[in-house]
Amino acid sequence: CSRPQKVCLCPFLPIHPLKVSTCLYIIQHPAEESRVLRTVPLLAACLPPDKCKILVGRRFGEDRYPELATVCRNPNTLILYPGAEATNLEEVAVMCSSPSVLIIIDGTWSQAKDIFYKNSLFRLPKQVQLKTNISSQYVIRTQPTNTCLSTLECAAVALSIMEKNQSIQETILRPLQALCSFQLQHGAQIHHSKEHLLKNGLYDKPMPKNKRKLRRMELLVNNVKI
C-alpha cells in the first residue's frame, strides 16, 4: 500500500487480486493525483492490473487516446455518471452476458461534470447510475450529500452488481474502512456532508453569492435531487 508501517493497510487488502470479468477504466482528474487520502490506489490494489486502468487528464481526444476511443465505442462499455439519461446499473447488469467495461470519473463533482461534458467520447457508452441509499464510509472527506460515494465505493458497489457477487463490495471497502479508522485515531475529524451541515445549522463557511451555487445549497437542505 506504500504507507508507513504504523498505518499500513496491506493486512486489509485481499491476499490475491479479485477475479473479475469486468474491466474498470478510471478517468482521473489531475488534481486527484496530489491528494494524500485518495481512494483509487486502494481500488487498484484490490484488482488485477489489466482490470483497473487509470488514465489521468482533463481532455481525452480520439487521436491521443485511440484505445479509449475503441473502448467507448464498444457496445459492452458503460459509463457511471448519474443523470436523467442514466439507467440504473441493476437493470443493465441483468442483460449483460459478456464481460463489460465500466468507466468511472474520479474527481470532485464539478471536476467530474467538466470531464464528462467536455469529452464527447464519454457520451458514446451507455450511461448508468447506482440506485442505492447507502451512506458513504469515506468520512474523512466532505461529500455534498450523505449518499455521495467515493470512487472506490462506487466501484465496489458497481462491481458487486455486475459480477453478481456481494463479497466483492465487502472486500474492496475493507481497506477504505481501515484508512478512515487510522486517520481518525491519529487526529482526523469526521467530515459530515455539506447536506448534513446545512440542515443542522453547522455550516460555518460564508454562503455563496453566486445564485446558481446558492440554489444548489437550498436544494440540498430541502432534499431535492441535484
UniProtKB/TrEMBL annotation:
<dbReference type="GO" id="GO:0008033">
    <property type="term" value="P:tRNA processing"/>
</dbReference>
<keyword id="KW-0819">tRNA processing</keyword>
<feature type="domain" description="DTW">
    <location>
        <begin position="1"/>
        <end position="188"/>
    </location>
</feature>
<comment type="similarity">
    <text>Belongs to the TDD superfamily. DTWD2 family.</text>
</comment>
<dbReference type="GO" id="GO:0016432">
    <property type="term" value="F:tRNA-uridine aminocarboxypropyltransferase activity"/>
</dbReference>
<dbReference type="InterPro" id="IPR039262">
    <property type="entry name" value="DTWD2/TAPT"/>
</dbReference>
<dbReference type="Pfam" id="PF03942">
    <property type="entry name" value="DTW"/>
</dbReference>
<keyword id="KW-0949">S-adenosyl-L-methionine</keyword>
<dbReference type="InterPro" id="IPR005636">
    <property type="entry name" value="DTW"/>
</dbReference>
<protein>
    <recommendedName>
        <fullName>tRNA-uridine aminocarboxypropyltransferase</fullName>
        <ecNumber>2.5.1.25</ecNumber>
    </recommendedName>
</protein>
<keyword id="KW-0808">Transferase</keyword>
